[in-house]
Amino acid sequence: MSAFRNNELFRAAGLTLNSSTDHVTAGTTNATTGRAGPIDISRVSSGLLVVTVANAPTGTNPTLAVFFDVLDATGSTWVQTSAATSVGGALLTSSGYTYGLINNGYVLTNQGRIRWAVAGTDTPTFTGVSFSIHGRP
User: Fold this and answer.
1) Cα–Cα dist 77/91, whole Å
2) Which of 7, 65, 77, 112 could form a disulfide with 117 if both were Cys (CB 3.0 to 4.6 A apart)?
């Protein structure tokens, strides 16, 4: 038995992010649950989203903005609940990491997702990307 409580809600590693995709639940398996699809955020009140980029991005002036969204009560509209610029308030432009708090105060359906925007020229791509979310009850 572990001395630590595991509140990990989501984990995925080795992802490639570019402008042809825009959210991690589009067929990515959550290594914590073994399922693909929206992230169940029903058991937490807040959390920490950590984004790690293992490799230098390609393209010219590449930027990566990462956001956290929740599904509205109608089940049809994703609402951004993270900082307007990106999780952690800054864009990633190289390998490294960023993190940001996610707040469950906007939870309407208990479903969340990680979304991103890649910008730059000459087909910017970020590889070796990992996401993890740890929640607090």
Assistant:
1) 25
2) 65
Backbone angles phi, psi at 35, to 5 degrees: -115, 155
- Beta strand 96-103 with 39-40 is unpaired
Dist. CA 131–CA 1, nearest whole Å: 25
Q: What is the CA radius of gyration of the chain?
A: 15
Question: Tens of pLDDT along 106-137?
Answer: 556 788 899 999 999 999 999 999 999 988 77
Mean per-residue pLDDT, 61-78: 90
Helix (H, G, I), strand (E, B) or coil at 104: helix
CA of 134: how far to CAs of 62, 69, 120, 121, in Å?
27, 15, 30, 33
What's the gap between Cα 91 and its chain centre?
13
Dihedral-angle region of residue 128 (phi above 0 means left; psi in -120 to 50 means alpha; beta otherwise) = left
* CA gap 85, 88 in Å, rounded: 8
Confidence of residue 71 (pLDDT cuts 50, 70, 90): confident
